[in-house]
Design brief:
The complex is a heterodimer of chains A (288) and B (292). Chain A is mainly alpha-helical and 288 residues long. Chain A contains 15 helices and no strands. In chain A, α4 crosses α11. The longest helix of chain A is centred in the N-terminal third of the chain and has 32 residues. Chain B is mostly helical and 292 residues long. Chain B has one domain: MetI-like (MetI-like fold, Orthogonal Bundle), CATH 1.10.3720. Chain B contains twelve helices and no strands. The radius of gyration of chain B is 24 Å and the shape is globular. The chains are: A mainly alpha (288), B mainly alpha (292). Chains A and B meet through α1, α4, α5, α6 and α10 of A and α1, α3, α4, α5 and α7 of B.
Chain lengths: 288, 292
């Protein structure tokens, strides 16, 4: 899994660096990176300005930095409730997806049972199906069981995640058979083998998948947007556009809301950079 | 291991039960229901009567549906190949660096990818604001006057495409970097000893070895961008949507704004068929790659 780690190591191309052309190229890279990052930088700087300053002060650093946009969002909008909704739904989705996928991946990889191949092929096939096409029917189903405008209603349709099952199955396939056989010899049940031997061996994969599932569900827009029509049930991702509608031209507040909405995922990425990278490589089927 | 085969089976069903239940209820059933619904005139909530194939004949003659297919294809053309090319370029630039500098530069390129789409929308809506946006300086320099991008049809799709590339490119960059790392260093050293130029090294070593990743990125992007909705919806919010309509947006509009569940399901079936067709193509390509 070496290909999954990204930082701190140079590649085969690294040795060509210390020539005048190389220095120029490095400089160009830095300029490109700064340009690419600029929209985010500008958003953060705007969020630190008062609403009147946003349309008069265009300096790279705010002349009168203020947190009033943030304070306004937290005190005068539904943002705290949206945060709670996002946390509940994202944690719910993450726990359920990782748990179900690990169990299913283990069963398909290690156990022999009637219907095993049918299940595996269904999962592989569902990988191709656009869940987006099912929004109308998801809505109808959730309406029928009276789950519109509830946390569970937001969570349930987001649990369709064949990729995590595929990654787990492939990971368990790669573990030596001896581990399982030795444990079974010692009298462990299959369930114990799964919980005590197989899961602990891949905490790395589990963490990586959990982080990327969390980021994905925190960022989900279409489904939470459809199912939460009551403002009090919105997630942060859906809510911040409502802030924008309500405020009119108040860029300081709107961008403060945007910064607050991205804070958890940005932190998740910055703290677990390697894991996020690993998860992306895993889910794309590159094993490095 | 025959002695506990029975308990094996029991454990297997126990472990897969939650997954199977969720899949049957929220994946298989809505898929079947979607097809059934497409043969009725049902509203979003409630029963309708069977209308045979008339939703399908209506769809094939519907100018807005044609527009939506065309716009979706246009968006795919604007994002998939250009986005992948830019990602490869960036990955090549990042791969040359090392240590903390590489981490920093990579983070700058990757960070947009983890932002929620509404945040991306808010950031760019501000940057392109016709009165106060930073980008208007650049636009004015090109066109001679400020442009309200999100209310000007010819600017709309290219605008959304650029933002989408900015937003989603981190994914492809990471895949390309992983691929570049897997190229053995001695290949370059040997080529350098033989007096190969950089360009020759790229053409003869890097490009052939990175090609499988390129195909992977292209197909992943293609399938992702066919399902475009969020950005187009957000940027068109409050304006007229017909001219910039994309497929998922048309499903959304028919189901949730026009209360036409049956017709919305018909368009959903069309999207379903298109994406599955491209996915099978992708699967075949990956299989061929796997066999090599």
């Amino acid at each position: 899994m070496t290909g999954a780690t990204t930082d701190g190591q140079s590649t085969s191309l690294g040795y060509m660096r210390r020539t005048p052309g190389g220095v120029l190229l490095t400089l160009l890279t830095l300029i490109a990176a700064a340009t690419w990052f600029f929209p985010i930088y500008w958003a953060v700087m705007t969020s630190l300005r008062s609403d009147s300053d946003t349309v008069t002060d265009f300096g790279l650093i705010p002349a009168n930095p203020t947190l009033e946009g943030y304070i306004f969002d937290i005190v005068h909008s539904e943002l705290p409730i949206w945060y709670l909704n996002s946390t509940i739904t994202s944690v719910g989705v993450t726990v359920a997806v990782v748990f179900m996928s690990a169990c299913t991946g283990f069963a398909i990889s290690q156990l022999r049972f009637p219907g095993r191949m049918l299940l595996w092929w269904t999962i592989l096939a569902s990988f191709m199906v656009p869940v987006t096409a099912l929004i109308v029917n998801h809505f109808i189903i959730m309406a029928n069981v009276k789950l519109l405008n509830t946390h569970l209603g937001i969570i349930l349709p987001m649990l369709i995640s064949p990729v995590t099952v595929i990654v787990y199955k492939q990971f368990f396939d790669g573990l030596p058979k001896e581990f399982r056989e030795a444990a079974v010899m010692d009298g462990a049940t299959e369930l114990q083998v799964f919980l005590r031997v197989f899961l602990p061996m891949n905490w790395g994969v589990t963490t990586a998948l959990a982080i990327i599932t969390f980021i994905g569900s925190w960022n989900a827009f279409l489904w939470p947007f459809l199912v939460s029509q009551d403002e009090k049930m919105m997630t942060v991702t859906v809510g911040i556009t409502a802030v924008q509608d309500a405020f009119g031209v108040a860029f300081g507040r709107v961008l403060a809301g945007a910064v607050l909405a991205s804070l958890p995922v940005a932190l998740a990425y910055l703290l677990f950079q390697r894991r996020v990278t690993q998860a992306i490589a895993l889910s794309a089927g590159i094993k490095g | 291991m025959l002695r506990n085969r029975r308990s094996d089976i029991l454990v297997a069903y126990l472990l897969t039960a939650p997954f199977i239940a969720v899949y049957a209820w929220l994946f298989l059933w809505p898929t079947i229901q979607m097809v059934m619904l497409s043969f009725t005139d049902a509203p979003l909530i409630g029963a309708g009567k069977s209308v045979g194939l008339s939703n399908y004949t209506r769809m094939f003659a519907d100018p807005v549906f044609h527009k939506a297919v065309w716009n979706t294809a246009y968006f795919v053309a604007l994002t998939v190949i250009p986005g992948t090319a830019i990602a490869l370029l960036i990955a090549l630039m990042v791969a040359r660096l090392s240590g903390w500098l590489q981490s920093l530069v990579l983070a700058a390129f990757f960070l947009p990818y983890i932002l929620p789409v509404t945040v991306v929308y808010v950031i760019w809506d501000w940057l392109t604001n016709v009165q106060f946006g930073m980008m208007q300086g650049l636009i004015e320099w090109v066109t001679g006057r400020p442009v309200n991008i999100w209310r000007t049809v010819p600017w709309f799709m290219p605008g959304v495409a650029i933002i989408t590339i900015w937003w989603t490119n981190g994914f492809s960059i990471l895949l390309f970097l992983a691929g570049l790392r897997n190229i053995p260093r001695d290949l370059y050293e040997a080529a350098a000893l033989d007096g190969a130029t950089r360009w020759q090294m790229f053409c003869r070593i890097t490009w052939p070895l990175i090609w499988p990743i390129t195909v992977l990125c292209l197909t992943i992007q293609l399938i992702l961008q066919l399902k475009i909705f969020d950005q187009v919806y957000l940027f068109a919010m409050g304006g007229r949507t017909q001219a910039t309509m994309v497929l998922v947006q048309y499903i959304f509009e028919q189901a949730f704004q026009k209360n036409a569940g049956g017709y919305a399901a018909t368009i959903a079936v069309a999207l379903f068929v298109i994406v599955v067709a491209f996915s099978i193509l992708q699967f075949q390509i990956l299989r061929i790659r796997g066999q090599r």
